[in-house]
Amino acid sequence: MARVLLLLVLAASLVAAASSKRLPVLAPITKDAATSLYTIPFHDGASLVLDIAGPLVWSTCHGGQPPAEIPCSSPTCLLANAYPAPGCPAPSCGSDRHHKPCTAFPSNPVTGACAAGSLFHARLVANTTDGNNPVSKVTVGVLAACAPRKLLASLPRGSTGVAGLAGSGLALPAQVASAQKLANKFLLCLPTGGAGVAILGGGPLPWPQFTQSGMDYTPLVTKEGTPAHYVSGRSIRVEDTRVPVPERALATGGVMLSTRLPYALLRRDVYRPLVDAFTKALAAQPANGAPVARAVKPVAPFKLCYDSKTLGNNPGGYWVPNVLLALDGGGECAMTGKNSMLDVKPGTACVAFVEMKGVEAGDGRAPAVILGGAQMEDFVLDFDMEKRLGFLRLPHFTGCSNFNFTPSA
Ligand SMILES: *[C@@H]1O[C@H](CO)[C@@H](O)[C@H](O)[C@H]1NC(C)=O
Questions:
Q1: Ligand 1 centroid vs 128 CA: distance in angstroms?
Q2: What sequence ranges are listed for the domain Xylanase inhibitor C-terminal (predicted)?
Q3: What range does the domain containing 138 cover?
């Protein structure tokens, strides 16, 4: 009798353990050729643009979705308005604070436009994953801000809104974590072509043959007034030569991650010595057998462009000097030609580093470096919102598009 009871208790606890082990949520990432923005499927053929620095999920809504009855004075409404975008109205509940519904101000990461919108219950239809393959379909309820169609200007065709991936309470990773009882973590592998991968909620890292021992980690730094992800830089090298940026320049203002532009923006005190070192190293390459790169008329906003036929190719993209950004924690983010050059038109490739406008050299209110899409592609980025960012460059023979989106069984 006692044994039967024990077995029953054991069986019950095993069932409980199995159902409480929730799997993270997988979404394939597509790069839009026209805009160089990245999208994930949302539901019913609609997709959302990934905005790594965005604080909200927003989408057009057609009255079909249930409105979320969230009062203006509620904690959720405070979360929705915790990071007003520059130039957008400051939220206010007015005198009737208890009865007024919550208004959020979704903003377009590309144009900077924003609009007032209420919150509604949307759903993200995706698959769970064991880290290697999709496992089963999952529908995750998320709170999204309702945006007018005009807020979609400059976003990829077919997208209906934006999925913010910042470190805020109503960004997609935090919402998936709380709805699915998962860790507030997400993994991103942005593709150069083909389908990249987003995994929300932690779990085993994909590509274990590389990620199990090869990840470097750097602390995530939070900055007052912004939900964007920042890390702190120590130094930059071009090949073996240290770029003479002023001491602490990279720590002052930090290194911000952004998906709104395909290229990097650098503050003047970092930009000028870096492009100087880069062009010198490029000019020295023919001594090692590289072809002589021929400069051509620059295409705005770039200042350094080359006839792409005169740039050699190697497995890491165009044969240009490697740029290595050393981060706090000891790891180095190694950018090859894939990350430092962009094809801007047929026959012309430009250096994907652009000087920030309207910012003084050394001004710590601006980031020292804003890494863009090209700089992050083919890196596994493992965000642990509480503390750190893991990063690993996938080997050139593979890349982010190598994830297995077809189920194994
Ligand atoms: C989920 O996985 C199935 C089977 O692999 C696939 O057909 C479907 O497109 C996936 N759904 C999403 C949203 O990724």
A1: 10
A2: 230-391
A3: 23-200
